[in-house]
Amino acid sequence: MKILVLNGPNLNLLGEREPNIYGGETMQSINDELVQLGRDMGYEVDYYQNNVEGRLIDRLQEARLDCAGVIFNAGAYTHYSYALRDAIASIKIPVIEVHMSNVHSREEFRKTSVIAPVCRGSISGFGKYSYHLALSALNNILGGEK
Known about the structure:
By secondary structure, the chain is an alpha/beta fold.
């Protein structure tokens, strides 16, 4: 089974972008860890990042055909993209919303997620471990402890 790790705008700049908030690790190093963790659980982990909303929608729609679940950090689109919300609602595989920072302790606009109501769950505030926790959650949803 394949799990998609989907990342939205500006996450390609992890490691250099606001390290006081997001830490010093790159997206590639986080993806490499997720590939290994997934392998240990019996999953193939695929990852995709794009700054363009439509391309994220396209990848979500493709995921319904080749993935068992999605870990999704929509970045700033979390707070206003009804198009991404509709794309998530349109697919039948579980989607876990993730954020590295604790969005509830930041600016007021970050406290609202328009995608959360159509996601299976949301995890935030644990840095790169938000992704690890989401992978564990998907493992549980998809059939338990492997």
